[in-house]
Amino acid sequence: MKLTVLGKWSPYPLPGGACPGYLAQAGGVRVLLDCGNGVVAALQRFCSPADLAAAVITHLHPDHFSDIYALQNALRFGRYPKPAAPPLRIFAPRGADQFLAAVLPKETSRREFLDRFTFSAFEDGEGRVGEEVRLRFAPTNHPMPCHAVEVSSGGRRLVYTADTGPSEAVERLAAGAHMLLAECTLAEGTEHLAEELGHLTGGMAGALAARVGAKKLLLTHFFAPFHAVKDSVAAAAKEIGAVSQVDEGSTYEV
Q1: How far does CA 36 lie from the centroid of its chain?
Q2: Is 169 in a helix, a strand, or coil?
Q3: 73 beta partners
Q4: CA dist 231 to 202, 214, 234, Å?
Q5: Does residue 238 sit in helix, strand or coil?
Q6: Under a CB-based contact definition with an 8 Å cutoff, are residues 199 and 164 in contact?
Q7: C-alpha dihedral sign at 183, 62, 43, 33
Q8: If DSSP codes are grouped into helix, strand and coil, which group holds residue 71?
Q9: Residue 125 confidence (pLDDT) above 90
Q10: Residues sharing a CB contact under 8 Å with residue 80, sequence separation 6 or more, in sequence order
Q11: Which residue, among 34, 29, 25, has the nearest Cα to 65 in the 3D structure?
């Protein structure tokens, strides 16, 4: 299994970067994890949007879903004048389909949007993508409904925390993961804000990885206005040795 980082910034991308978006690949199956600002452009460096087997929108904050409309257009027009790609399966919070469609100005636009995707709710339980890939979900600790995601295939397990503060459910999902892709939005020294804001520091992410026995930790979801990436990595490294920041455009073996 491989993970390619398409975007790592929040709540807006830095120049040349993108908000959260990750491409998981296993057994010839490609799954997009989150679709923030700039992700669709970055995705096309590695595959066509039509090559995706499924996508996950962890929650309905714009930095995690705003490129869904660019993805819709890529699936609709990317093969022009050939037929459009078939509907893409989207795993998302219950009601996400109507929420995302509601912003479109016309009934015909909303119908075209909903025709381009098939939505499956996290609350309905785990899902399978083809024969090779299984997805499992766990609610996180965040101000709006959000779910962490496990992608497993061939005995390998990737767990993406999405946005979360301290969470027992996320820890259970991440137990023994081969790779933990963890957010670290908060600056070191602001741990007291974790519960209120629903985010982690780098040190807290490192401690989480150590507690659950993750084999490898990747840090992501860096706060763009205060991008003290080195501080976050250094704090996490005090908790667990196998840690690094993600680099946009890089691919990692799970």
Answers
A1: 9
A2: helix
A3: none
A4: 8, 21, 5
A5: coil
A6: yes
A7: positive
A8: helix
A9: no
A10: none
A11: 34
Tokens (6 digits) for 171: 């820890």
Residue that has been written with the tokens 């660019």 in this structure = 70
Residues 94, 110: Cα–Cα separation, whole Å? 17
Give the whole-angstrom CA distance, residue 174 versus residue 229.
23
According to DSSP H, which parts of the chain are helical? 39-43, 62-65, 68-77, 96-102, 107-116, 168-174, 194-197, 202-212, 229-237
Strands 2-7 and 251-253: antiparallel
The string of pLDDT tens digits covering residues 196-211 is: 999 999 999 999 999 9
| Average pLDDT, integer, range 149-167 | 97
Pairing of strands 222-223, 9-10: parallel
Q: Could you give the maximum distance between any two Cα atoms of the chain, in Å?
A: 54
- For 54, the token pair is 């499924």
160, two tokens: 């993406």
Q: Which of 53, 45, 55 is nearest to 18 (CA)?
A: 45
Nearest to 50 by CA among 75, 69, 73: 75
Could you give the domains of the chain? 2-253 (3.60.15.10)
- Residue 49 above 90 pLDDT? yes
153: amino acid identity, one letter: S
Query: What is the SS3 assignment for 69?
Result: helix
What pLDDT sits at residue 81? Answer: 86
The values of phi and psi at residue 78, to 5°, are -65, -25
Average pLDDT over all residues of the chain:
95
| Cβ atoms within 10 Å, residue 87 | 13
Question: How many residues belong to the chain?
Answer: 254
Count the Cβ atoms, other than its own, within 10 Å of residue 144.
11
pLDDT in tens, 70-95: 999 999 998 888 888 889 999 999 99
